[in-house]
Amino acid sequence: MNDVVDDPRLARDAIAANAERIRPYVRATPVVDVDPADFGLAPCARLCLKLELLQHTGSFKPRGAFTNLLTRTMPPAGVVAASGGNHGAAVAYAAQQLGHRATIFVPSVASAAKVARIRDYGAELVIGGDRYADALAASEAWQAANGALAVHAFDQIETLLGQASLAFELEHQAPELDTLLVAVGGGGLIGGVAVWYRGATRVVAVEPAAAPTLERAFAAGRPVDAEAGGIAADSLAPRRVGELMFPIAQRFIDGVRLVGDDEIRAAQQALWRTLRVVAEPGGAAAFAALLAGRYRPAPDERVGVVVCGGNTTAVDFER
């Protein structure tokens, strides 16, 4: 299983080449420096936010979606994906842009904002089961019968390769970061980020306490089932982390910080109040680790935080 760490498809030159391949289809999202004091945090040398919620479809997921669709052969049945919402929206968007049919399976916990996005991109939407794992099983049965191209949300080399482009981009925007905080669901994003940095920048995982997939995997020495609840269940609760990302995590991820639902809500509110950034719960989770003191930077530390998703209707502009 450790062979994935040294898989040439995930080498830094391969990541850089893929970032150039998908560049016409994804946004280079901005990095914003903020004053820790504005959030009541102790001083550090630098605190910056990678605003990946400004990516197409409202999350980082198009990076992996376009990588899959641009590097694999598309069958007549088109593409199929299971998703808590963000991955499905990204695959639907990529399929629409490239002229392919898409069928997306989502669980009943998928937010209304994410379901609406998937439908807006012209995909056939199937809602079934209570959690991501249920939608995945249903999508696999459908794929076996129809021969569509399956695009996994996190446990696939092409998906990891695509998500790694975020770190490639960030290293050019903020080249001297000491630490980067990244939220974990299935681990596609943090796996891609960690395999790019390869220990040169400390990568810290942040998970909801109600869905501690990576923490349980570290304790067991392998991916195992964990709870799949909490307010970020539609993006950070896949039941277990991916088999492919776990060896990467063991080598290059510097532990896990758990955050509670109330701490995630507080981070959402702080991002809105201070920056007018509307993050979904999963998108605010990494910042919650700072705000709640689960991760405390040293005074001379340069820290980045990935705000990875913004698909929420938490702000009601009709009021």
General description of the model:
The model has no long low-confidence stretch (mean pLDDT 94). Helix content is 40%, strand content 15%. The protein folds into two domains: 210 residues, Rossmann fold (3-Layer(aba) Sandwich); 89 residues, Rossmann fold (3-Layer(aba) Sandwich). The strands form two sheets. The protein has a six-stranded mixed beta sheet with strand order 1-2-10-7-8-9, sandwiched between helices. A four-stranded parallel beta sheet has the order 5-4-3-6, sandwiched between helices. With 319 residues, the protein is α/β, with parallel strands linked by helices. It is built from eleven helices and ten strands.
List the helices and strands and how they pair.
Layout lengths: L11 H11 L8 E3 L12 E6 L10 H10 L7 E4 L3 H13 L3 E5 L5 H9 L3 E4 L4 H15 L2 E2 L6 H17 L5 E5 L4 H10 L4 E7 L4 H8 L24 H8 E7 L1 H15 L5 H11 L10 E6 L12
Parallel strand pairs: 2-10, 3-4, 3-6, 4-5, 7-8, 7-10, 8-9
Antiparallel strand pairs: 1-2
Helix pairs in contact: 1-2, 1-6, 2-3, 2-6, 3-4, 6-7, 7-9, 10-11
Give the distance, in angstroms, between the N- and C-terminal Cα atoms. Answer: 52 Å
Strand order across the largest sheet: 1-2-10-7-8-9
- Counting structural domains, the number is 2
The overall average pLDDT, rounded, is: 94
**Uncertain parts:** none
CATH class of the largest domain: Alpha Beta
The proportion of residues in beta strands is: 15-25%
The succession of helices and strands, N to C, reads HEEHEHEHEHEHEHEHHEHHE
Compute the CA-based radius of gyration: 18 Å
Number of helices: 11
CATH topology (level 3) name of the largest domain: Rossmann fold
| Helix-strand makeup class | alpha/beta
Major β-sheet annotation: 6 strands, mixed
Shape: globular
Would you identify the CATH architecture of the largest domain?
3-Layer(aba) Sandwich
